[in-house]
Amino acid sequence: MKNQYFGDINDYKKYSLLRLLSGWGQIKTAVCWVLTRDDDGNDGNRVKYLQQPDKWRDYDPILYEYLKENVLRRGIRDVKILENSDILTNCRFYSEIVDDDIKLREEYFNRFLEFAKGADLVFFDPDNGLEVKSISFGKKNSSKYLYWTEVKAAYQAGHSILIYQHFPRMQREAYINNLVQQFKAITEAKHIFYYKTLFYYKTRHVVFFLLAQPMHENLFVESNENILNVWGKIISYRELPLR
Predict the structure, then answer these.
(1) Given Cys at both, which of 20, 68, 129, 195 links 208, Cβ 3.0 to 4.6 Å?
(2) For the chain, what are the domain ranges?
């Protein structure tokens, strides 16, 4: 996550998804922004939706108006604004900047695990998603990724995990199936859901994976129905069978 992205169309869907999955604060949530420094990119420019209330407001009116006020009217692009609001209730936020350096990254993640103790749901929001073969742990730009060792450690600590993920340029269902099998092998999670954002603003390249702890499964099943009721075809979900 970069502050320059704050409030774009992906964030609107992302924060609404978090609100719904947590049961509007029924369970404790810890957000790890995996925050990296701003750059000269323009990926955070997708805020035109805030000028189209007839199309977008009704999905999550409270969140929409909050983002419209702070992003469009006040011009604020900073996750601290969200942290200091009551948009995500029963939620704590880990806002340290993550570094490429191996030692600093390990210390960063250990501090997060301590910070997240007692949270039911953990949300990881890396710039790009899960690690790729071309960028190993500790290499330049590794801060943009979440690594399998970190996923395993968080799940073994008893948290359900939600992960933001960009699609690579490959067949998407095959990619999803492959990741789900890796999640199974690494965490032994029995219930894995994924959420795809559909249509509008070229956001079809985004998917979220939810690795549910058994104790949270019923809540997430109920939340998934609420997601369908609220977002209809814009956000779809599926639980994949594990071979």
Answers:
(1) 195
(2) 3-239
